[in-house]
Amino acid sequence: MEKPLLAFTKKGIYCEKAGVYLDPWKPVDKAIISHGHADHSRWGHKQYITHKRNIPIIEHRLGNINSSGVSWGESFVVNGVKFSLHPAGHIPGSSQIRVEHKGEVWVFSGDYKTEDDGLSTPYESIRCHSFITECTFGLPAFSWRPQKEVFRDINEWWAENRSEGKTSVLFGYSLGKAQRLLKHLDTSIGRIYTHAAVENLNEVLRTYLDLPDTIRITKETKKEDLKGNLVLAPPSAHGSPWLRKMVPYETATASGWMAFRGARRRRAVDKGFVLSDHCDWEGLLGSIEATGATRVICTHGYSDIFSRFLREKGLDARTEETQYEGELAEINSSGNDEKD
Questions:
Q1: Are residues 188 and 250 in the same domain?
Q2: Where do Polar residues bias regions lie (predicted)?
Q3: How far apart are CA 81 and CA 59, in angstroms?
Q4: Omega of the bond prior to 140 within 30 degrees of 0, cis?
């Protein structure tokens, strides 16, 4: 029996014919990287290949690495296997990885979402025989409202806090979510201040993205400066002494996990906004159907439940273990590693 084009190994997803790994979680010689979050782009590989817009992100995170960038849809061949990167819509520079050999096509989605966030290159559906999909929110309970409605609620929350003389502290992971929030905040309400972890990534992404002006919070920033304005910070800042300067303040988290009752209470925030950079249930199902794939491999998230549902629909679906964490890692990050 011929080996599959892509296999799950102890180091990561491996294309043996090319000698290449996709988003490996242990050091390898050659890695193709889908995007810049820490669970997908790890330190220690000898060579990194990724989309050119992801290069400044991973170099910022990982330091001096041997990296090369390609454009969307640009094919490159390794040992007779053709690879290309296509927009995943997850965060800026995020890719799906298409792998083709002798007419057989696999697609590794990485992390992805289908709603155009106005910031990332929108998701592109790719026809394939086998599709590797995340299942971060692979339950019918997850159904996202249009982001326009969510941002309206966020801006109304900020305006109300400003009228009461409070600082609005909004938590979202530093790479991707923070910039998405920033892009859609109503700057007519007030000024936007940022935690250093967020501002560091803003500076990287401003090299190719148009983002509203922000002010980095430093030791010199006064409480009076922040009053009535909005602060963007990673979730790790919640409950830290850093927040003392914000008093009086209201806190909120923007995450897909806010769809669960009790999630806001467990995270001890005043407000929760349901906003995710991953697909909801219908988004996952629609994406898979559009690929035309008959084989689906489900990874991180509610993979068992989701794969069982796909099998009931007649697809050849199974689960595989990885070290990807989806939005759990983004929420739990320390903030030093910009995944948050």
A1: yes
A2: 331-340
A3: 27
A4: no
Report whether 296 contacts 247 (CB < 8 A): no
Distance CA 234, CA 253 (A): 9
Asked if residue 62 and residue 116 are part of one domain, the reply reads yes
Region 165-193 average pLDDT? 97
Residue linked to tokens 């989806």? 326
Encoded amino acid at 273, one letter: F
Owner of token pair 């040992």: 79
Start-to-end C-alpha separation, the chain: 43
- H-only helix segments in the chain: 55-62, 147-163, 177-184, 196-205, 223-226, 263-266, 281-291, 303-312, 327-332
User: Of 123, 115, 335, whose CA–CA distance to 233 is shortest?
Assistant: 335
Alpha-carbon gap, residue 115 to 90, rounded angstroms: 9
Q: Are residues 267 and 309 in the same domain?
A: no
- Nearest CA-CA partner of 83 in 100, 108, 70: 100
Q: How high is the pLDDT of residue 210?
A: 96
Instruction: Tell me what pLDDT residue 239 has.
Output: 86
Residue 334, pLDDT above cutoff 90: no
The number of folded domains in the chain is 2
